[in-house]
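Predict the assembly for these two chains.
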Amino acid sequence: MSLARLSLGQRTSQFLRRQVPVALAVLLLVLAQVPTQVPGLVEVAPMLGLICVYYWAIYRPDLFGAASAFALGLLDDILSGAPLGSGALALLLAHGVISRQRTLFHAKPFAVTWPVFAVVAAGAYLVRWLGAGLVRGAVLPAEPVVVGWLMTVAAYPLLGWLLASLNGTVVKDDID
Amino acid sequence: MKPPSGQITRISTLRALAQRSMFILLVLSAFGLMLLGKADTVVIERARTLVADSVAPVLEALSRPAATVADFVRNTRELVELREENARLRQENDRLLKWQSAALNLESENDRLKDLLRFRPDPGTRGITARVIADSGAAYVHSLLLNAGASDGVSKGQAVVAGGGLVGRVTEVGRRAARVLLITDINSRIPVFVGDRRLRAMLVGENRDRARLIYLNGPGQPGLGERVVTSGHAGALPPGIPVGVVTAVDEKSVVVEPYVQRHRLEYVRVIDYRLPGLGTGAP
């Protein structure tokens, strides 16, 4: 069926479905800014945006492009007060690496995608830590970054599962 | 009609090329932004405050239920420890009552002495109460977003305090949101006095829970448990705001634990402090 033959309702639904990956990532990012009043959490909170970037870069790069990864990182920088560009660069590079190798990870079991995510996340954290340190002109403490990385890797199964259950149900194309 | 396969290959090559140049462009933009940020330009600040301003209402709405949940958890936890807490508070109350009478005596004595010396009083300070609406990214920067901005009278450089003491300083101001750099941030520098001897020093953050004293000026080292208060030097902050307490002293550094615990912050006060007659020949 071609796009021209779809009704207005179908086209609207199609359009909205295609916005879900980015919209969900933005929502998670905004939620992550909210003060939790849990001691010590704010230093090590997981980078949920990275999980979204990784997942969609493998399965639906057409719906979550490099520009989206960049914008998501930039929004994180602005809202969290981190040096502008550091988060954007980290997510962008992660997206770049994954989307170029996506055929390798596509349709691979969780036992493969999870460790690969851990490696990609380590790279992204390192980039952001170095970038932020360069801009701020200081060596930032590394412990929160390492713990944050572990938290992100630990959050991957749950959020990855949520994204996987959206992919193919909510996020699907009515046309080919 | 189907396009010939050669055309398809050409289109896909062009698309790949466009994607690649887009990627490179974005990487360069990220570096460009980092450089701009390092130069600390007004443009970056304007952009940041603009976005913060527009997201502030959303964050504000979200932070209320979050705070309610946090309160509930805390209340439940406190309920368990009610009996012990009560005993402790009763003891503390006795002790504080003694201090209160001592403070009242000192206050009246101080007033009399000030009168004798014709002391020029500090300017009255006005406070603006604000809610913390965003707190994140602590691995890279120690800062908070408040739901008060220029339209509420907040301006750059003002001190932010909460019950226990100094929280930090306002660094970016939007119309309805402002960013506070905490005293524990790696770029924070606060002139302070330490202890009863009022040793002058600079409190520097390290992006950790605790801060450090540098440029200690005066005889001897500060002792454990000595109080650190703002000195009011440089005129940026009002003098005498409690900052923290010295928790470790060694050859290389003096560690200060701030009175204010970041995760407990819900409401803060932004202090509008202006030196009297600044620019009119005041000393």
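Residues 277-283 of chain B have pLDDT under 50 and may be disordered. The longest strand of chain B covers residues 126-134.
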